[in-house]
Design a protein that fits this description.
By secondary structure, this protein is α/β, with parallel strands linked by helices. It is about 30% helix and about 30% strand. The longest helix has 22 residues. The chain starts with a strand and ends in a 6-residue tail after the last strand. It binds adenosine-5'-triphosphate, 1-O-pyrophosphono-5-O-phosphono-alpha-D-ribofuranose and magnesium ion (MG). Adenosine-5'-triphosphate binds next to helix 3.
């Protein structure tokens, strides 16, 4: 058995670029070439297997890969349709490729809630998740499986409604459809089987997961610097999202003012800056944080 940690990733598509970027930010050096199905990481004992996203859960379950990055929607679907059970579980949530698996029907049609699906046809790429949902809700409907372009199903007359992924909602709108129920919320996830890894691989995976954690946290974390009236420091600190003890520095020649610096672990919105300014804060700077380790 190889000693290199094998990571299954989507070769091309909605998950691919964000997955590559995440690994690059974790310090992995590799190049993805056109037709290649395997990329070797140059500076660590890691191989990247570049595959269709639907194959990632079974690659992990069947020991073709040690870990994988896939949409939660695909993991749950593969778990539900796999007859002998699938040995692949979520190890870590990755926060990108967020979308919902929703039920939707034509704006001008008769269906606008789940109960009305009884006796109808629903087009979907996710028969497992849909079937499970219908069973739980006691609804009898026929699922019509499609590999893509599911939004076209009602207009071409092969189903009365659809069950598909929605993110911005633009595709639904362009096809005259409205969502009326969400059956699954999804994001990219790191998956692993229950198999024990060798000590070396486990140590490498622990290091990688700690770096991924740092990348995710630093993307949400900002460093804020501002000057403020001394008597407003407490009120200003209250406003800083996810920060409890800022650094306060005296300002030369300005008795009533201090400089305040803090790490904010949540997003800082324009509204927060406007509120800080209203309290007397000036020269406000919000800086990105490139790396974090606690
Ligand atoms: N509109 C969207 N916004 C955000 N994430 C999405 C969106 N559509 C899909 N995703 C997520 O990205 C995953 C991959 O989507 P993509 O469309 O690339 O899949 P695919 O066409 O099945 O790819 P493959 O060729 O690898 O089988 C989905 O399973 C889902 O988790
Ligand atoms: O709500 P929206 O932001 O419009 O996104 C939703 C669309 O995105 C996905 O398809 P994609 O564009 O990846 O094409 P595909 O069906 O060929 O995979 C999904 O299957 C929807 O059709
Ligand atoms: Mg796919």
């Amino acid at each position: 058995m190889t000693d290199r940690l094998r990571i299954a990733l989507q070769k091309k598509g909605r998950l691919a670029d964000d997955s590559f970027e995440l690994l690059k930010k974790c310090g992995l050096r590799f190049a993805i070439r056109g037709g290649g199905l395997l990329a070797r990481v140059k500076n660590m004992p890691i191989d990247l297997l570049l595959v269709r996203d639907d194959d990632i859960p079974s690659f992990v379950a069947n020991d073709a890969a040690d870990i994988g990055i896939v949409g939660e929607n695909v993991l749950v679907e593969e778990q539900l349709v796999s007859r002998e059970g699938l040995d692949a579980e979520i190890t870590m949530r990755l926060g990108f490729s967020r979308c919902k698996l929703s039920l939707a029907a034509p704006n001008d049609g008769d269906i606008n809630n789940t109960e009305q699906l009884n006796g109808t046809r629903i087009a979907t790429t996710y028969p497992g998740v849909l079937g499970n949902f219908l069973k739980e809700r006691g609804i009898s409907a026929k699922s019509v499986e499609m590999k893509g372009a599911v939004e076209l199903a009602p207009s071409i007359g092969i189903a009365e409604s659809i069950c598909d992924l929605v993110s911005s909602g633009a595709t639904l709108e362009a096809n005259g459809l409205s969502a009326f129920e969400t059956i699954l919320e999804s994001e990219a996830v790191l998956i692993q089987s229950g198999r024990k890894l060798s000590a070396d691989k486990q140590a490498l995976l622990n290091k990688l997961m700690s770096r991924i954690d740092g990348v995710i946290k630093s993307s949400e974390t900002k460093y804020i610097m501002l000057n403020a009236p001394k008597d407003k420091v407490a009120a200003i600190t209250e406003l800083l999202p996810g920060s409890d003890s800022p650094t306060i520095i005296p300002l030369a020649g300005k008795d009533k003012l201090v400089a305040l610096q803090a790490v904010c672990t949540e997003n800082i919105f324009w509204e927060t800056l406007e509120d800080l300014k209203a309290l007397g804060a000036r020269a406000i700077l919000v800086l990105p944080i490139e790396k974090m380790m606690s």
